[in-house]
From TrEMBL:
Cited Pfam families: Pro_isomerase
Parts of the chain that traverse the membrane: none
Protein name, entry field: Peptidyl-prolyl cis-trans isomerase
The reaction(s) this protein catalyses: [protein]-peptidylproline (omega=180) = [protein]-peptidylproline (omega=0)
EC number: 5.2.1.8
Lineage of origin: Bacteria, Pseudomonadati, Bacteroidota, Flavobacteriia, Flavobacteriales
GO molecular-function terms, A-Z: isomerase activity
Residue ranges of domain PPIase cyclophilin-type in the record: 81-234
Protein family membership: Belongs to the cyclophilin-type PPIase family.
Role of this protein: PPIases accelerate the folding of proteins. It catalyzes the cis-trans isomerization of proline imidic peptide bonds in oligopeptides.
Organism, scientific name: Croceivirga thetidis
Residues of the signal peptide: none
Keyword Coiled coil: no
Spans annotated as Disordered: 147-171
């Protein structure tokens, strides 16, 4: 009986041992996931930094127009108005005012502005308009004034283009860069010399200037019927 028990125990031990040998091993390795951003195909969003638009101001306008006048090849500006065309030749030795006028023309500033002030037998004044578009264009170009440049020998002869002061109370006669006036008086309006800066002259279309000067105006010298500058072209 004792031998039978020993035999049975030995058989059980052998069967257990063999079953352990045939049992598949459990997987103990852990798959490694790459953290390389290229393998994950992660697209980084590009941060696009928009350049701030260039604005003219009191600090940069003088240097800008001095250099600009040396670089531009255009010497004339043609104003196509609702009453005809006027061609203006600009003086080389007044670089701030010349550069300013060409720059504004090429920026499209004068397009759809008006001759908003007409003083009989004296001047026609343009470059402004009572609309939001003109105000917006000024905002996008910048806020600045130009100093007078009156010692270059130019006088306010008939047909001369010059710049008005920015305000009535303006002891230094700083010029409003967005506006201009053309002298109609024969032979000229020489009392303006030394106070305002002539920067060019009409070479074609003086008959159009005279025609504009004859339009009917209200008590504030504003034409009763708008006279538009349809387009300004530098060439």
């Amino acid at each position: 009986m004792q031998n039978l028990r020993l035999t049975i125990a030995a058989s059980i031990t052998l069967i257990f041992f063999l079953s352990c040998q045939n049992k598949p091993k459990e997987k103990t390795e852990v798959d490694v996931v790459s953290t390389n951003k290229d393998s994950l195909n992660i697209e980084e969003s590009e941060v696009i930094q928009e350049e701030e638009p260039f604005l003219l101001n009191e600090e940069n306008a003088i240097d800008f127009f001095f250099n600009y006048a040396k670089e531009v090849t255009e010497t004339k500006v043609r104003l196509t108005t609702s009453m005809g065309a006027i061609t203006i030749e600009l003086y080389d030795n007044v670089p701030y005012h010349k550069g300013n006028f060409i720059y504004l023309a090429k920026q499209g500033y004068f397009d759809n502005t008006m001759f908003h002030r007409v003083v009989k037998n004296f001047i026609i004044q343009g470059g402004n308009a009572d609309n939001k578009a003109t105000s917006q264009k000024r905002k996008e170009i910048g806020r600045y004034l130009l100093p007078p440049d009156t010692r270059k020998g130019h006088k306010h002869h008939r047909g001369t283009i010059s710049m008005p002061s920015s305000e009535r109370d303006n002891p230094h006669k700083l010029a409003s860069p967005y506006e201009f006036f053309i002298v109609v008086t024969k032979p000229g309006s020489y009392h303006l010399d030394g106070s305002y800066t002539p920067f060019g002259r009409v070479v074609e279309g003086m008959d159009v200037v005279d025609k504009i000067n004859k339009v009917e105006v209200d008590s504030g010298d504003w034409p009763m019927q708008n006279v538009y500058i349809l387009k300004a072209e530098a060439f």
